[in-house]
Amino acid sequence: MPPTTTAPARSRVLTGDTPTSTGLHLGHYVGSLENRLRMQDEHDCYFLIANVHAFTTLADKPDDIRANTLGIVKDWLAVGLDPDRSTFVLQSEVPAIAELTFLFAMLIPFNKVMRNPTLKTEIESKGLGDSYPFGFPMYAVGQCADILAFRPEWVPVGEDQEAHIELCRDVALKFNQVYAGVGNRVPPEEHVKAGGVFPIPKARIGRVARLVGTDGVQKMSKSLNNAIFLYDTEKQVQKKINGIVTGRASATSPIDPANALIQYAEAFLPRERADAIKADYAAGKEVMDGHVKAEVGAAVNALLAPIRARRAELETPDGERRVLSVIRDGVRKANRLAEETLAMAKKAMRIDFVVRTIST
User: Is the entire prediction scored with pTM above 0.85?
Assistant: First the structure.
């Protein structure tokens, strides 16, 4: 019997985070979380915790990965992502993702995976050299399965993840052409109507495509010790912002428009105020960096205050129970859709010999 398909009443969205640290930072907030908050009212949203992918760099630290996984769910809830309006997906509990990863790996040349600029950047920034496990490049294929298992139309990501979405689009296009008989001249947006299993997902970049870290050099990252976390205290936030180097010789010297302090002013202050600060710097007026840092710090802390309070509630025993309940509920819903997708893919590939069900 052919699998039934779930046609969403609203367009579907999939995005997520890898638990390589205890929580998320401001770069995540302006790059993706803001989009998620808006989209959960308008779309059928699936938010994925990629805890299996965390093993690519933390394979010897399973306790850390578990704690980080719970920390990300707490951050999501604290920010305002609502499991009653969206689905929280724990990657390790959705077996269809692993199966699709293996199947998709047959469609992508290895050298194409290794040319992925995001993958190359991560290898360099994390100093992995040639010592990374085979699973590290494999996770680029796994991200395609993370996304396509839920057949989304949109994937909200930061600018640095856009290359992964392009790889995902390539996989979906090729699968539909090879196994579902979609012609190579069919436009991407017409693939499902033409009989394709997978829609060709589109990236949606956040308000700030790439927020620089407090070091002023690399993008804000959990692993580079240049991040302001959503759970940082007021003092920690202000101390990190105070540590930003502007490189000015005096209070009337110019400032690089790409400097981290300017980026944070543009991201977290009202537009009129940020424009006024930039204009004063450009005009050579006397501007005290410390005053600007205090203003930016106050704005960031005002944003984070309610998030901090809600996260603190989740650190209690009742909060921990709620987090686990949210994960369990999300896994049940996620498996229903992912198993449906896998059945559709296996039918297209002529390997649909049995019908299975997942009990959770």
Answer: yes
Structure tokens, 170: 């390539």
Compute the distance between CA of residue 308 and CA of residue 306 in angstroms, rounded to an integer: 5
**The dihedral formed by the CA atoms of 60, 66, 67 and 71, expressed in degrees to the nearest 10:** 130
Q: How far is CA 277 from CA 43, 212, 249, 299, in A?
A: 37, 19, 18, 14
Distance CA 262, CA 313 (A): 33
Cα-Cα end-to-end distance for the chain = 23
Domains of the chain: 12-210+317-348 (3.40.50.620), 232-313 (1.10.240.10)
Token couple for 182: 């979609």
Between CA 296 and CA 285 the distance in angstroms is: 19
**211: closest CA among 72, 31, 36, 75?**
31
Q: For residue range 45-64, list pLDDT tens digits in order.
A: 999 999 999 998 889 999 99
Tokens 């680029």 found at:
140
d(C-alpha 209, C-alpha 230), whole Å: 18
pLDDT number for residue 8: 52
Alpha-carbon distance of 228 to 170, in angstroms, equals 34
